[in-house]
Amino acid sequence: MTQWQHLWQFSSTGKFYRKIEPNVSLKIKYENSIRKKEIIITRMRFGICSTRDYLKRINIAASD
Questions:
Q1: Domain locations in the chain?
Q2: What is this structure's pTM?
Q3: With the C-alpha atoms ordered 30, 5, 1, 3, is the resulting torsion angle positive or negative?
Q4: Is the CB of residue 55 less than 8 Å from the CB of residue 62?
């Protein structure tokens, strides 16, 4: 775990996710028996759900 944490902290990729989850672990972050609900919660955590703000960032909507 120590080696994994070191690699995680100093990696050049994953900067956005490191803000959400700065420490590595084997713990499942969120689990739901309804897959659709699990997908929505995960997308919200990552900030990639279809909100007006996100659609503006990816140049699909004219305003946020």
A1: 2-57
A2: 0.48
A3: positive
A4: no
